[in-house]
């Protein structure tokens, strides 16, 4: 191997699970940034990771609905299926096939350290599916099947992306090749970790039992406004520096949400609202959120009227994704020593 790492052309890949609906966290931490990446002109590949979703039990009818609704969310948020490749994971066999190779590269000790597995499996790890444990190897396969170089995600996926880098490096090392790129996580912006509206120390999540803790992209204007007005805060007005919010997680979260929705920095928000109480700030935030999210919500509902069209878009995306991933998988098999018949 040469000393200078091989340069791979820039290609962005990311995925979202179709388990439950989309939250404001998914939107600001991921979707909105996926649209920016697409609009910047880099090649973008976005995936509804249905094989990841089934690592915990999913009702089949609900899974189908959630996958289509997620596709509608991508498109409503600004993903153009002509410019980005948009598809569901299970339609491209290379993901599952490459995941098997990576199951044989990743080490038990690496996977045992994954905090998402510990959180999701909880105290009952013995009863968790093998798929839930092996999940990060499938995630590495999602990315590396395309030789993707950059992966925009929220903060909670950082550890999985470090594992993806470890898997790529170990594969390259074990086989003496520079076949897989060492991917760069792209964790940027004001809202890489949107917190619960009820508890500023917990991540906003679709699995939180309290619906008041999150904003769903399917919430109507009244629900969005009500949830933001009732969001937990403290009695102090907003300070004039961001540092002064260090011990005020709920206030900091609302400032970050405002900044991300308005495409400004948290410092700009503070400059605008220093000295104002939440009686002023929360209604302003609610108006901004409704303004930005209501059109997405309306467009999602419109797109969901025609699921055949959504399925067609996903099928088309899968064919384009397959055309990239299948040759990479074949080369990988060849490197490993698996015989491919001449075709
Ligand atoms: P998932 O489906 O849990 O979340 C999708 C994306 O949304 C981000 N996100 C958040 N960002 C900020 N604040 C929050 N509260 C918040 N909640 C979620 C996540 O960081 C993520 O970017 N394992 C992944 C899916 C996946 C994937 C991949 C991602 C599978 N294969 C390959 C990238 C590349 C997951 O469960 O994301």
TrEMBL record:
Species this chain originates from: Roseinatronobacter domitianus
Residues the entry annotates as binding ATP: 17-19, 25-26, 154-156, 194, 203-207
Motif ('HIGH' region): 18-26
Quaternary context: Homodimer.
PANTHER family for this protein: TRYPTOPHAN--TRNA LIGASE, MITOCHONDRIAL
Short sequence motif named 'KMSKS' region, residue ranges: 203-207
Pfam family of the protein (one): tRNA-synt_1b
Family to which this protein belongs: Belongs to the class-I aminoacyl-tRNA synthetase family.
Lineage of source species: Bacteria, Pseudomonadati, Pseudomonadota, Alphaproteobacteria, Rhodobacterales
Gene it is expressed from: trpS
GO terms of molecular function: tryptophan-tRNA ligase activity
Residues annotated as binding L-tryptophan: 142
UniProt feature coiled coil, ranges: none
Chief place where the protein resides: cytoplasm
Keywords on record: Aminoacyl-tRNA synthetase, ATP-binding, Cytoplasm, Ligase, Nucleotide-binding, Protein biosynthesis
Subcellular location: Cytoplasm
Reaction it catalyzes: tRNA(Trp) + L-tryptophan + ATP = L-tryptophyl-tRNA(Trp) + AMP + diphosphate + H(+)
Role noted for this protein: Catalyzes the attachment of tryptophan to tRNA(Trp).
Its EC number(s): 6.1.1.2
InterPro entries registered for this protein in UniProt: aa-tRNA-synth_I_CS, aa-tRNA-synth_Ic, Rossmann-like_a/b/a_fold, Trp-tRNA-ligase, Trp-tRNA-ligase_bac-type, Trp-tRNA_synthetase
SUPFAM superfamilies named in the record: Nucleotidylyl transferase
Record-given protein name: Tryptophan--tRNA ligase
NCBIfam families membership: trpS
Organism domain of life: Bacteria
């Amino acid at each position: 191997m040469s000393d200078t790492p091989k340069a791979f052309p820039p290609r962005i890949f990311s995925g979202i699970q179709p388990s439950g609906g989309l939250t404001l966290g998914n939107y600001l931490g991921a979707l909105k940034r996926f649209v920016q990446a697409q609009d910047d002109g880099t090649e973008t590949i976005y995936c509804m990771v249905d094989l990841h979703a089934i690592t915990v039990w999913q009702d089949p009818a609900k899974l189908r609905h959630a996958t289509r609704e997620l596709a509608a969310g991508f498109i409503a948020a600004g993903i153009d299926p002509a410019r980005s490749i948009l598809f569901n994971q299970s339609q491209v066999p290379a993901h599952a096939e490459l995941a098997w190779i990576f199951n044989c590269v990743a080490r038990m000790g690496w996977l045992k350290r994954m905090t998402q597995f510990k959180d999701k499996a909880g105290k009952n790890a013995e009863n968790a599916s093998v798929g839930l444990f092996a999940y990060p190897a499938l995630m590495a396969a999602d990315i590396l099947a395309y030789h993707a170089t950059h992966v925009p995600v929220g903060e909670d996926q950082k550890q999985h992306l470090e594992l993806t880098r470890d898997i790529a490096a170990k594969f390259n090392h074990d086989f003496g090749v520079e076949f897989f790129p060492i991917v760069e996580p792209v964790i940027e912006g004001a809202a890489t970790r949107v917190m619960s509206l009820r508890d500023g120390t917990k991540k906003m999540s679709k699995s939180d039992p309290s619906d008041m803790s999150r904003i769903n992209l399917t919430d109507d204007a009244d629900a969005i406004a009500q949830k933001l007005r009732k969001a937990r805060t403290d009695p102090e007005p907003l300070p004039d520096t961001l540092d002064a919010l260090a011990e005020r997680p709920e206030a900091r979260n609302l400032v970050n949400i405002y900044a991300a929705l308005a495409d400004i920095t948290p410092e700009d928000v503070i400059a605008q609202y220093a000295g104002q109480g939440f009686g002023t700030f929360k209604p302003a935030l609610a108006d901004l959120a409704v303004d930005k999210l209501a059109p997405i919500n309306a467009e999602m509902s419109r797109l969901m009227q025609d699921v055949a069209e959504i399925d067609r878009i996903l099928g088309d995306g899968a064919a384009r994704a397959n055309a990239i991933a299948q040759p990479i998988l074949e080369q990988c098999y060849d490197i490993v020593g698996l015989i491919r018949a001449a075709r």
